[in-house]
Every structure is written in C-alpha cells, then in structure tokens.
C-alpha cells in the first residue's frame, strides 16, 4: 500500500515564535513547539506517511491584534509553506493561512494570492474568530469565494475568546477542541451556510469532534422543538439537517481508537474519512493513534481508502507525481 496522505500536519516556522512569545505560550495553553523538516520527515517515515498537507495550528495570524500585522504574517507563512511545497511537490502541500475573517478584505486577498499564485492545496480556517463561529453572516463573502473555487477548507479548532479552563489539569486540546469543532459545524449547518456553499469541501479535524455523536440530537431538536430558531436558508427538516452533518469530511487525527472508529466509520459517507496525524503537537499521540488505527479490523481495501484513496480524490494533483 502507498504511504498515507496526512491532511492534518502542522508546521510552525521560526518567525511565528515571536508573536507567540508575547503570549508566553500558544492560544491552546500548551507550550510552543519546535518544528523542523528533518523531524517531520523522520516521523513520516515512522508513520508511513507519503504526503503531508501542512497547516498552522491555533493561533493563526490574527495572534497579532493589528490588521496589517495579521495580513503580513499570513502572507509570510504562506510563502514559506509554498517554498516547502515547491521543493518537495510529490510529498508536501499546504493549507493557506488567512488573517481574521473579520478582516474579510484581507482574507479574500490572501485566499486569491495563495490559491492563484502560490498554488495552495486549500485554505485553513479556525472554528471561531473573536467567539463568532464560521456560519456568521459577516464571513459570507469568504465562503462565497471559497465556494466559487470549489476549494478544500480545513477547519482546525481554537478556543472561543471567552473560554476559561475548568482545571489547569485539563488543557483545551484534550476536551474543549472537540466541542468547538462540533459547535462551528452545527453553526454552519443551521445558518444555511453549509448548504448554500456546498461546493466547498470542508474537512473537520479530529473525527469531526462532537458532531457525529450529537448529529441525531441536533437534527431532532432543531427540526422539532426549536424550528423557529433556524435562520432563513437553513435546513428545516430532520432529514435535511442530518444530511448536512454528513456532508463534511472527517480526519482521523487523535480519533483512531476503537470507540471512535466504531461510530465514525459506520456513520460517515463513503469517501469522507481521511488520515491525519496532528504531528508535531501530538507526536507520541500520533504514533499511538496510528498504531490503534492499524489494529482496527477492516478490509485492506477500505483501510487504503482511509489512508490514501479518499485524500487523493480531494487532492488529485498528487496522482500526477511520481
């Protein structure tokens, strides 16, 4: 079987450390990482990953509070990631970074530059911007642009601005990130953005967070008791809401254990499950998760779809590389 196609690999350049140092840590509450191409290649060999799509983890370029600073940081990151891809086109791609979606003009300009000039493989968005989830109407120009291009959109969780830790022992990536992914997915569905801009191919991190397990509850509740809360253009029936929950793609980063796979692989539509490692933020966890995934009982042909085939369908340019 060919090496895996990893849609969830992070890359943090040295120049991103300076704004993070102002925080003392990254926005997730965990220490900053040191990233290197050499270590990434070593881990890829260990995990049998043949292709990595690089992206930023939280926080994004809007870690800089001023508009021009965030725009500049996004551009710097994208050109850096594009250089990696150009040097290793058969083995690396990248999701473009954008400034805050509240700066929709800056985001649109960066999307166009990244996709048209730098040939990015897609765009990375975070689950919320200043506590506003991705179905927010002010963000609609960005979704229209992405939809017009039938772009791949990788959604990575971040913390809501008003979040606080339940305990210092429970860091956000361990628990809260899954909720944030579920929340923004539900918001995209109920506002009608997901259905209106259906040509975008949206990847949800970490098995879709809480969305798969709460999809039936969401569909039942919103189509019956709370029908009047649905926005114009949103799905109005149980069947339509459930259909929209399954219209996303789901990566298996930190989601390769039996209890998750038992549900997700039966629930998600064919072609919608992708391999992800979450390296280097989850280095030991990536090894453990991949080992558990390898142990999970499934036909070899199905396994290859999750590891490689489904990703190749989203990123056909890699089929042309030797």
From TrEMBL:
GO MF annotation: an example: metal ion binding
Which SUPFAM superfamilies does this UniProt record tie to the protein? Metallo-dependent hydrolases (SSF51556)
Q: Mind telling me which InterPro entries this protein's record contains?
A: ACMSD, Amidohydro-rel, Metal_Hydrolase
* Cellular component terms (Gene Ontology): cytosol
Domain of life of the native organism? Eukaryota
Membership in a protein family: Belongs to the metallo-dependent hydrolases superfamily. ACMSD family.
Protein name per UniProt: 6-methylsalicylate decarboxylase
Q: Report the source organism.
A: Ramalina farinacea
